[in-house]
């Protein structure tokens, strides 16, 4: 079945970024993906995303849905037909929406697990916490908007960070069937991000010593997006090569 292009508004998006030892990131990646390195570090993180007005692109905005979502991501590159391509590998996606959980992997790319979210937002502070229904993953992040990006070892300034994530707009998701990755691409003519400061960040995914040995995953920076219209376009599935490591 042909999957539809989806329209939406990114009402709020937190990109909580970690700098990661390349060998730790590589162990989690299926072939043919490899870590995309920035100043010698792999880049990984959590995307905490509230989408509004989600609908097939041909449908009126009034028919759209709203949902809280999370994606754990690792920045990757691979060899495409026209050279090296970049994007993110997503070992798991979660959503508070029953619709997303049912439709992901069926009507649009990206299988979703169910999660319960707690969100508190003021002009000066945003807190997003979640716990997945399967008990595997917990996240609790508090950030504050700032005018400049400070303290990052990955990016020299906000413009560099913004360009990196804008260029990595293709998301490749793990599937329960295995053998291939689902693909979806974020497109917008209104890309804009602002800097944030992490006040606290906890993630059972990145704190799991079996995935990331102590010291191999360190919180680095956070970017914030608000009220950005965006389309989500299906990509051809990516076949996996034999010898792929299972995602732990």
Topology overview:
Blueprint: E1 6-20, H1 22-27, E2 34-35, E3 37-38, E4 41-56, E5 65-80, E6 83-95, H2 98-103, E7 113-122, E8 125-132, E9 138-146, H3 158-167, E10 170-173, E11 180-187, E12 194-203, E13 217-239
Structural class: mainly beta
**Largest sheet properties:** 13 strands, mixed
Helix amount: under 10%
Instruction: Give the number of helices.
Output: 3
Q: How much strand? A: over 45%
Supply Rg: 17 Å
Query: What's the end-to-end separation, in Å?
Result: 31 Å
Low-confidence stretches: none
Instruction: Summarize the helix and strand pattern as letters.
Output: EHEEEEEHEEEHEEEE
Number of strands: 13
Mean pLDDT: 93
Shape: globular
What does this structure look like?
- With about 250 residues, the protein is mainly beta.
- It has helices at about 20-25, 100-105, 160-165, and strands at about 5-20, 35, 35-40, 40-55, 65-80, 85-95, 115-120, 125-130, 140-145, 170-175, 180-185, 195-205, 215-240.
Explain briefly what this protein structure is.
With 248 residues, the protein is mainly beta. The protein has helices at 22-27, 98-103, 158-167; strands at 6-20, 34-35, 37-38, 41-56, 65-80, 83-95, 113-122, 125-132, 138-146, 170-173, 180-187, 194-203, 217-239.
